[in-house]
Design brief:
The protein is built from eleven helices and twelve strands. The protein has helices at 6-34, 92-96, 104-133, 150-153, 173-181, 237-263, 275-287, 290-308, 316-329, 335-363, 366-374, and strands at 39-54, 60-74, 135-137, 142-145, 161-165, 168-169, 188-194, 197-203, 206-211, 217-222, 225-227, 231-233. Helix 1 crosses helix 7 and helix 6 crosses helix 8.
Length: 375
């Protein structure tokens, strides 16, 4: 399948990021307004304002020239990172609408609302898909075993049914794939049913090079088995909602396990992707049709929510961590300490973005082509 054009890729990426940033920031905004906190600005993107307007309550709604990210700036925030401003000269009326003077539990809910809204958005998407089209599932039955694979070495055969992974019951082959992908190089205890006889084998997923339909190379963990045909299971709306919650929960858990393996050194850091890779996948999803693009938006929404919950100052998780410290100490950290925390968090975040962009450029062969110019 040919690659989508650069124009389609950039336009699709802008739409995907714009939608998800709006959803994320709207979570912050709505909960803040619920508690009577005044919002001074709601921005999609950073930097110079391209277009905007001010609503009747004084909130400036705008789009910035840099489309990656966004923010809600509440009264009392020093900047877009929600760092508290110096409010010693604020009047009692002004303090009543300031974010930093709200009770701790309200501030925590406002911050947590962004990532949780991303998860809820993904649940809504999956619920709609499962209710409209049914849920595509594959029974966890082995159809083929690759010669020389970990499964072949363990004695698996066609017709074997996988019933548990590390003692967790599995119902679909998709669950098997998710568990294997998240456990490259880590032993997995696999419970097998063979004609009514149960036994357990120990498998270690290994990384394998693959090429997708667009000709892009990637690495994926596999155990060397293939499943049979997929089936579409009809879901009522309540069933679709429950299945969507499970789907989102499984994806959050898989993302956490994968990140933990990278941090622990069990998976290469080069597997992490950044904005260029998201843009690339956005264009490919668009080329496959609107349903695929909408589902891709759900996947990115989950990742955006997860990343924002990491305990890094500047991110939502960093704010929640500082609030947890405040709850234990029964008083906020000193302004100087908070300022250093935000500065260090910003530096760490920028360093991560540079590293991910480097990975992305390496993934599309940019460094190889560049070296060829001087070779």
């Amino acid at each position: 399948m040919p690659h989508p054009g650069i124009g389609v890729t950039i336009a699709t990426f802008a739409v995907v990021i714009g939608i998800l940033v709006f959803v994320h920031e709207m979570g912050h905004y709505l909960v803040g307004r619920l508690f009577g906190i005044r919002a001074e600005a709601f921005s999609i993107g950073f930097g110079r304002e391209i277009v905007g307007w001010t609503d009747r309550v004084g909130t400036r709604w705008k789009m910035g020239v840099l489309p990656i990210g966004g923010y809600v700036k509440f009264l009392g925030d020093a900047d877009a990172s929600s760092r508290p401003a110096d409010a010693r000269d604020a009047t009692a009326e002004e303090r009543a609408g300031m974010f930093q003077f709200r009770p701790l539990w309200q501030r925590a809910l406002v911050i947590a609302a962004g990532p949780l809204t991303n998860f809820a958005f993904a649940i809504v998407i999956f619920t709609g898909f499962f209710a409209m089209y049914g849920q595509s599932v594959t029974p966890p039955v082995v159809d083929r075993v690759a010669a020389g694979s970990p499964s072949a070495a363990a004695g698996l055969r066609p017709g074997d049914r996988i019933v548990t992974l590390d003692r967790h019951i599995v119902d679909t082959f998709e669950e098997v794939v998710a568990a294997v992908t998240a456990n490259a190089g880590t032993p997995i205890r696999v419970g097998i049913d063979r004609g009514g006889r149960g036994f357990v084998v120990r498998l270690v997923p290994r990384m394998v090079d693959r090429v997708d339909d667009f000709g892009d190379h990637y690495r994926v963990a596999q155990i060397g088995i293939a499943a049979g045909s997929r089936a579409i299971v009809a879901r009522s709306l309540p069933q679709a909602f429950v299945a969507a919650i499970k789907q989102v929960g499984d994806l959050i858990a898989a993302t956490g396990r994968g990140l933990g393996q990278v941090v622990g050194g069990r998976r290469a850091a080069s597997e992490l992707g950044g904005p260029i890779k998201i843009a690339q996948f956005s264009g490919q999803a668009a080329a496959l049709g609107l349903p695929n693009l909408i589902q891709f938006i759900a996947f990115v929404s989950i990742n955006l929510g997860f990343i924002n919950l990491l305990p890094v100052p500047v991110l939502d998780g960093g704010h929640l961590f500082l609030y947890a410290v405040e709850a234990v100490r029964r008083r906020p950290l000193a302004p100087r300490v908070q300022e250093w925390a935000f500065l260090s968090g910003f530096a760490a975040l920028m360093s991560l973005m540079v590293f991910l962009t480097w990975n992305d450029l390496a993934g599309i062969g940019a460094w190889h082509r560049l070296s060829g110019l001087f070779g």
